[in-house]
Amino acid sequence: MTTPDSSSTPKRPPLRVTRSEPVRGLRWRSAEERREAKRKIDAIRREAAARRINEIRVDLRVLRSPRVMLGILMLFLILGVAITSVLKKPVKRRPDETLMMINRATRSVKLAAQAFTYYRVHTLQWPNDRQGLYALAHNRDHVYGWKGPYINWAPTDPWGTEYVYQAPASRYEAPIFFSCGPDKLPNTDDDIRATPEDFVCDEGTWHRVEEPNEQQTDSTQAEKVTP
Q1: How far apart, in whole angstroms, are the C-alpha atoms of residue 68 and residue 225?
Q2: Domains of the chain, with CATH numbers?
Q3: Helix (H) or strand (E) holding 7
Q4: Using one digit for the tens of pLDDT, what is the confidence trace for 152-185?
């Protein structure tokens, strides 16, 4: 039995797809068609943007509603009350700087007068004019009985002027001690002076203690002895 020869069989031609119209993409279109497509795309984008604006836009008829108008009036009323309360609130005034400095100088003068009194009680003498306020901070002259330092602040007043000190003629008198005040001039009306009552301390006194009269003691003793 004979087999047919494979080489003698006819070959089939390849399949070909036939289209009535060729495929025409953007790059295959003409210039006029591309411009027309671009115009359509732009029109679609403008229409979408207009729709979004219409969705966001508030209908003005809502504002004409009585409820909305009443809410707006209440909001303005609350804002007015809040602003009025803020304006009526008393504003804290900054204290006068000069007054603060005067009060500080007054306290410093009183504290220095008390320190001078401690110095007088411990050493049984007042500092001389040369020593002044520095004698309360340092014992440079090796004064007997000194138990300081009695102060730990600068010897100048709040205006940067040194305090004025004058030793008394007697140790049983109060010294002169004052601040020159805002005008920085001594012996003027604004001087802040220490009074004799400011020179006090709880460890003793600088006043003279009057000794009892001998004649009075003799008479009192005689009265006691006389039957």
Answers
A1: 111
A2: 31-88 (no CATH), 97-198 (3.30.700.10)
A3: none
A4: 887 899 999 999 999 998 888 999 999 999 999 9
